């Protein structure tokens, strides 16, 4: 009976982590959709007040600095790049998560990878606290 209880609680933890991973995956997809939709205000809503986004010019610290630095990517009618999540992992505590995946140029060619850390803000609500692109190079086909 004790073994069944342990197995049952272990399965329960995995199920909740699985549900959290699904939430983060959906949040990342919605976050990425703001670029395609040219929805700058939507983009900003996903970012934590104290978030840090790493870029070529160094880190952007805080939501205001990120908004100033990223506004340029939303000003034109066509998105200059896009991204999509490939993987998500969530801590057993359910409070922090990682998402990562490819970044594509406007022509749909892979040009790099993004890596983001998400924090649980409220039940079912996740916000980005760290973001960094990496592995940027010549375009590759999807």
Mean pLDDT: 89
Strand content: 35-45%
Task: Kindly name the structural category.
Answer: alpha+beta
**Distance between termini?**
51 Å
As an assembly, this protein is: single chain
Radius of gyration: 17 Å
Helix percentage? 25-40%
- The stretches of 5 or more residues where confidence is low (pLDDT under 50) are 1-14
Characterize the overall form. Answer: globular
How many strands appear in the DSSP assignment?
7
Give the ordered list of helices and strands: HHEEHEEEEE
- What is the overall number of helices? 3
Largest sheet: 7 strands, mixed
Q: Can you characterise this structure?
A:
- By secondary structure, the chain is of the alpha+beta class.
- Strands 1, 2, 3, 4, 5, 6 and 7 form a 7-stranded mixed β-sheet that branches.
- Strand 6 and strand 7 form a beta hairpin.
- It is globular.
- The N terminus is likely disordered.
SSE layout and pairings?
Elements lengths: L1 H36 L2 H6 L1 E9 L2 E4 L1 H8 L10 E3 L3 E4 L5 E10 L4 E13 L2 E10 L8
Parallel strand pairs: 1-7
Antiparallel strand pairs: 1-2, 3-5, 4-5, 5-6, 6-7
Short description:
The protein is an alpha+beta fold. 35% of the residues lie in helices and 37% in strands. It has helices spanning 2-37, 40-45, 63-70; strands spanning 47-55, 58-61, 81-83, 87-90, 96-105, 110-122, 125-134.
């Amino acid at each position: 009976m004790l073994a069944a209880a342990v197995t049952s609680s272990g399965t329960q933890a995995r199920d909740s982590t699985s549900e959290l991973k699904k939430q983060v995956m959906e949040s990342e997809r919605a976050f990425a959709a703001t670029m395609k939709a040219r929805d700058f205000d939507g983009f900003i809503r996903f970012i934590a007040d104290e978030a840090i986004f790493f870029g070529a010019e160094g880190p952007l610290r805080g939501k205001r600095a990120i908004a100033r630095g990223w506004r340029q990517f939303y000003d034109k009618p066509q998105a200059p790049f896009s991204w999509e999540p490939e993987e998500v992992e969530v801590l057993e505590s359910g409070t922090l998560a990682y998402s990562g995946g490819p970044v594509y140029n406007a022509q749909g060619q892979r040009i790099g990878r993004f890596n983001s850390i998400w924090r649980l803000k409220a039940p079912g609500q996740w916000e980005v606290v760290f973001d960094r692109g990496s592995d940027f190079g010549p375009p590759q086909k999807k």
